[in-house]
Design a protein that fits this description.
Elements: E1 12-20, H1 22-32, H2 42-47, H3 57-72, E2 78-85, E3 98-111, E4 117-127, E5 130-131, E6 133-142
Antiparallel strand pairs: 1-3, 2-6, 3-4, 4-5, 4-6
Length: 145
């Protein structure tokens, strides 16, 4: 867990990089119940105009959230989290998968009525050098000093 006592606006969270493979998509489909063939069939994905099989948007969102939860050390400290999906993560049919890189930055600090501090975190998710999520923001309750 990171020492969060001196958190300031502009602080950068440690980056997280994740390789997403077709096997990960199968596991996520089983866990979520989302068996849409665009997440496992190249024929169907390209048939609907996609560049290939794509990762589930909610999987990408969850992976992006890791940059926040790993930083704060307690997933229960996340008060809110939301994103907009802007670009798909195309997952090749190989052993390497797609490398997605996540980062975060403290964009705002506020104090609540009970004296707690809440950090607003701007999260960035990039695949192939391009942003795949926009307006990705988490609010995290920081431990009292």
């Amino acid at each position: 867990m990171t020492d969060l006592s001196g958190v300031a606006v502009g602080d950068e969270l440690p980056p997280v990089s994740v390789r997403v493979t077709r096997a990960d998509l199968v596991r996520y489909a089983g866990a979520s119940g989302d068996f849409n063939p665009i997440h496992w069939s190249d024929r169907v994905a390209t048939g609907v105009g996609l560049p290939g099989v794509i990762a589930h948007g909610m999987l990408t969102m969850a992976l992006a959230g890791r940059v926040v939860t790993e930083w704060v050390g307690d997933p229960g400290a996340v008060c809110s989290y939301g994103v907009r999906f802007t670009r798909p993560v195309v997952v090749p049919d190989d052993d390497e998968g797609a490398l997605v890189e996540f980062s975060g930055k403290v964009s705002e600090l506020t104090e609540t009525d009970d004296g707690s501090r809440v950090a607003r975190i701007a999260v960035t998710a990039r695949f192939d050098g391009k942003t795949v999520l926009s307006r990705a923001v988490a609010e995290v309750r920081l431990p009292k000093e």
